[in-house]
Amino acid sequence: MMEFIYSWQGYDQFSQLHKGDIVSQSTLAARQQLMLQGIIPIKVKRRCRFSLKYRWLEQQIMITQQLGVMLQAGFPLVSILRLLAQQHTSMSWRYMLTNIADELTKGTPFSEALEKFPQLFRQDYRQIIATGELTGELATCCTQLAEQQQSLLALKKRIIKALRYPLFVFFVMFIVVLLMVTYVLPEFSEIYHSMSVELPWFTQKLIDYSAIVRCYGGYIFIISFIMLYLAQYSYKKSSRWRYYQHYWSLRIPFYGVLITTGCLARLFRILALTQQAGITLAEGLRVASRVIDQQIYQSHIERHMICLMQGMPFYLTISQDNLFPPMVSQFIRIGEESGTLELMLMRLSNLFEQQTQVLADQLTQTLQPISMIILGIIVGGLVVAIYLPLFQLGQVIQ
């Protein structure tokens, strides 16, 4: 359900006045939460909707960068969080940062305080923060996290840019075809029938299709909407459905290769980051398997983690997996034998990120002319079908 931020005032058991903010689904629920905390509310007012989804990754990168810089400068963590909360423009983010700072003042570790917002701070983020707290290198871990997130954001934007133009072209094509079939074509059909013109086969089929769309278009739209909803519901609820969808998505020309290199780039970036933070390779694989969204790679990574815990060298188990190019096992073998595994994992991450950027640019350059050709063929075919009977009007007039 939708949650909101409520400002409140109330008295504790010692009759002292307190005020603050709380997140709840309704005013009644907010009052109940305050009473469970030993606060008797006298005023509860809804302020705004609580949402951290809008541009969350950009906001998280900015906050993590500032944490790293200010921790290196010697500022206390609680003071940094309260300062960031005061400066932030979003009330939801201000509430979250203040809430985390309050948890820290109670003695809660920073990584555990972040667990209250799992939709924002994922497991790899919390794991690296926890390692930084244990090793005393929290500032370094925040800096490394910000760099990793910046790489992820740049990769995500490049993929979206590659798909944005073709999707826009196909959307315009759908609107143009729908308008021509439902409005333009019926008008021409009435003109031709009034002149007793024998329609060509292609034009007649389009007119028949136009009649179907006009008569049953509403039903077609409703059925399509229901099917999309069921597909999305099955994707969320059924792991088997997600597995097959991810399996076939990897076999789509151009797009499958782009997804593969993107997953590999993120996998080795997470492994390199966890190695820098002092986390074991097996634990790094566990974190990566829960962070990467592609279920095919999740199952393979979990299998490699089990083999690694059984004492099998990482490069050997990777070499037996066809999802990973042969060069990957060679890099990892050199890293394991020379003690530079962290460096080799970082090089693999940079390599696959560069490949993903190149593939995204190639995908854009390939899809743009293809989409224009398809648009031209469809719209041109409709125009030809509409004006083809005009060549027979001369015979009718004679």
Provide a short characterization of the protein structure.
The protein is mainly alpha-helical and 398 residues long. It has 16 helices and three strands. The protein has helices spanning 27-36, 56-72, 77-87, 91-105, 110-114, 123-135, 138-194, 201-237, 239-249, 255-276, 281-291, 295-309, 314-319, 326-338, 341-387, 393-397, and strands at 4-11, 17-24, 40-49.
Tags for this model:
single chain; 398 residues; mainly alpha; Receptor-associated Protein; 3 domains; 3 strands; flat
Structure description:
The chain has three domains: 4-49; 56-121, Type II secretion system (T2SS), domain F (Receptor-associated Protein, Up-down Bundle), CATH 1.20.81.30; 143-398, no CATH class. Helices cover 74% and strands 7% of the residues. The chain contains 16 helices and three strands. A three-stranded antiparallel β-sheet has the order 2-1-3. A hairpin with a 5-residue loop joins β1 (4-11) and β2. The longest helix is centred in the middle third of the chain and has 57 residues, at 138-194. The mean pLDDT is 81.
Helix content: over 70%
Q: Count helical runs.
A: 16
Count the domains.
3
The tally of strands reads 3
The rough form would be described as flat
- Neighbour order of strands in the largest sheet: 2-1-3
Contiguous uncertain segments of 5+ residues: none
**Roughly how many Å is the radius of gyration?**
29 Å
* % residues in beta strands: 5-15%
Q: What is the rounded distance between the termini?
A: 72 Å
Elements, N to C (H/E): EEHEHHHHHHHHHHHHHHH
The whole-number mean of residue pLDDT values reads 81
Q: Which class do the helix and strand fractions yield?
A: mainly alpha
What characterizes the major β-sheet? Answer: 3 strands, antiparallel
